[in-house]
Specification:
Oligomer: single chain
Helix content: 10-25%
Largest sheet: 6 strands, mixed
Structural class: alpha/beta
Strand order of the largest sheet: 2-1-3-6-5-7
Number of strands: 9
Number of helices: 6
Order of helices and strands: EHEHEEEEHHHEEEH
Length: 215
């Protein structure tokens, strides 16, 4: 069964962000799935003290997968994501790893870790070969990060290309209809790349879709 997850550490995002993401997924994902919220292990906490989201590379560790009961596919969403449409089609993919691609405009890395799907046991080298020293040796934009490392290790990885073909978008980045703040037709999800959706509530489609559980 599919496992759907997010990661949280630090104080940028809260339990409310987790709940609103969970509710959006619940409304739009019809197939059976397990919901998980992951926190970095104690031995990985040093990775949360620097930019780059390296702690979530632990998802590629087969031993970590076993400890967390990951036996099929693991989908991971960033907490700055607003779910706006049906999701099942996105995850009907045979590839061992799929990642959001094609939104970056300045950063030459074609990949974005806001949405990833990994088959259990696939590509353990992404974690096994990782170290901060190794990540600093490869090309990077502003600073080394996990998506740059994934690109280095899996340059031919399958992707959801941002735009109307997939319905996956990064707000006002490549693939977004130019000159508008309105939600594109057919959008399945929108990520804000480290911006807080709670600060975007002036957009009608955000407050309509980024909702906590009704009480």
């Amino acid at each position: 069964m599919l496992t759907v997850s997010t990661w949280i550490w630090g104080d940028k995002f809260s339990k409310d962000h987790v709940e609103r993401l969970r509710e959006g997924i619940k409304r739009h994902l019809k197939q059976p799935y397990h919901w998980r919220v992951f926190h970095p292990e104690v031995r990985d906490m040093h990775l949360t003290k620097i930019p780059g989201c390296f702690a979530r590379l632990r998802m590629f560790d087969p031993e970590w997968q076993k400890r967390n009961g990951i036996e099929d596919r693991l989908v991971n969403f960033d907490l700055d994501t607003v779910v706006t449409g049906e999701l099942d089609h996105l995850f009907d993919r045979p590839e061992p790893f799929v990642i959001m691609q094609g939104a970056n405009t300045v950063n030459p890395c074609p990949m974005n870790g806001a949405l990833m799907m990994l088959k259990a046991g696939a590509h353990p080298e992404v974690w096994n070969d990782f170290s901060l020293e190794a990540a600093r040796q490869i090309p990077f934009h502003s600073f080394p990060d996990d998506q740059g490392w994934i690109w280095h290790k899996l340059p031919e990885a399958a992707g959801w290309k941002c735009g109307p073909e997939s319905g996956v978008y990064v707000y006002q980045k490549r693939g977004w209809p130019p000159g508008t703040k309105r939600l594109p037709a057919g959008a399945r999800l929108v990520t804000f790349i480290n911006n807080d959706p709670s600060k975007m509530m002036d957009l009608e489609w955000v407050w309509q879709n980024w909702k906590a559980k009704a009480k």
